[in-house]
UniProtKB/TrEMBL annotation:
HAMAP family: Sirtuin_ClassIII. It catalyses: N(6)-succinyl-L-lysyl-[protein] + NAD(+) + H2O = 2''-O-succinyl-ADP-D-ribose + nicotinamide + L-lysyl-[protein]; N(6)-acetyl-L-lysyl-[protein] + NAD(+) + H2O = 2''-O-acetyl-ADP-D-ribose + nicotinamide + L-lysyl-[protein]. NAD(+) binds at residues 9-28, 88-91, 172-174, 198-200, 216. Its cofactor is Zn(2+). Zn(2+) binds at C114, C117, C133, C136. The active site is at H106 (proton acceptor). SUPFAM superfamilies: DHS-like NAD/FAD-binding domain. It is an enzyme of class 2 (transferase). 2 residues (Tyr-53 and Arg-56) present in a large hydrophobic pocket are probably involved in substrate specificity. They are important for desuccinylation activity, but dispensable for deacetylation activity. Belongs to the sirtuin family. Class III subfamily. This is NAD-dependent protein deacylase.
Length: 225
């Protein structure tokens, strides 16, 4: 049975109404990445960072999976444990679509982390600097997301899966953030067939043997079928 590893980025959730980062009007055009997605930015202005993530958490809570998410759930249903989704997205749309085999390498909006003791728990919709960690009581509560300069989650497992993949697909990612941006090149070097599904070419396109251009809600169901 062929092992399929699928990397997803903000583009797969765009048609569910969640903003991407680098497209026209994207999140990084409204906020400076340094202010809201780095530990230094959080230390400088935790109120701004909580506002940024509270707004995204509320938006994500309302969002519904689109045909691209649902097609991946059908693929997982058909192939079971042979499909692994590695997502850069912090929204829960893959899980809402019914996927179970999902690794959130950049964390999750609906998880909170205590910067004091490392305790993790389900985040309330609104988080603030007033919140105390339920385990140690410290007022050091942050969103459980991976900021720039921080180590993404599950990297050892992801490296192993890329080495064993027969097919590697990247969906809706601009290929500008590492280490995810190197996964296509790594999987290809290990001998996987590689395919990129995106509106247009990305910064990592030359690492892929096949490209399918179009909106995810169209090209992902077609690729899965
Ligand atoms: C690390 C989480 C090391 C929270 C995010 C120079 C060279 C190499 C690396 C670096 C470098 N300088 C700095 C670095 C490291 C840095 C990095 O890569 N920087 C970049 C900017 C150069 N990386 C890191 O810091 C990473 N950590 O390297 O750690 C380390 C080692 C040991 C010990 C400690 C540390 C951590 C990176 C994670 C940062 N966190 N977010 C949050 O979400 O707020 S990153 C952020 O951008 C998002 O999470 C997302 O994951 C990521 C990538 O964005 P995309 O998902 O690709 O979205 P984007 O908007 O860019 O693109 C959308 C795409 O969709 C486009 O291609 C578009 O065409 C397409 N699209 C749009 N609509 C549709 C569509 N496709 C289909 N259908 C549609 N409808």
């Amino acid at each position: 049975m062929e092992k399929i590893v699928i990397l997803t980025g903000a583009g797969i959730s765009a048609e569910s109404g969640l903003g991407t980062f680098r497209d026209e009007g994207g999140l990084w055009t409204q906020y400076a990445l340094e202010d809201v997605a780095t530990p230094e930015g959080f230390a400088r202005d935790p109120v701004l960072v909580h506002e940024f993530y509270n707004a995204r958490r509320a938006h994500a809570a309302e969002a519904v999976p689109n045909p691209a998410h649902l097609a991946l759930a059908r693929l997982e249903e058909a192939l079971g444990g042979e499909v692994l989704i590695v997502t850069q997205n912090v929204d829960g749309l893959h899980e809402k679509a019914g996927c179970r085999n999902v690794l959130h390498m950049h964390g999750q909006l609906d998880r909170a982390l205590c910067a004091g003791c490392g305790h993790r728990w389900e985040a309330p919709l609104e988080m603030s600097v007033e919140d105390a960690c339920p385990a140690c009581g410290a007022r050091a509560v942050r969103p459980d997301v991976v900021w720039f300069g921080e180590m993404p989650y599950h990297m050892d497992r992801i490296d192993r899966e890329l080495a064993e993949a027969d097919i590697f697909a990247a969906i809706g990612t601009s290929g500008q953030v590492y280490p995810a941006a190197a996964f296509g090149q790594m999987a290809g070097a290990y001998g996987a067939r590689t395919v990129e599904l995106n509106l247009e070419r990305s910064a990592a396109s030359e690492d892929f043997g096949e490209m399918r251009h179009g909106p995810a809600s169209k090209v992902v169901p077609a690729w899965v079928e």
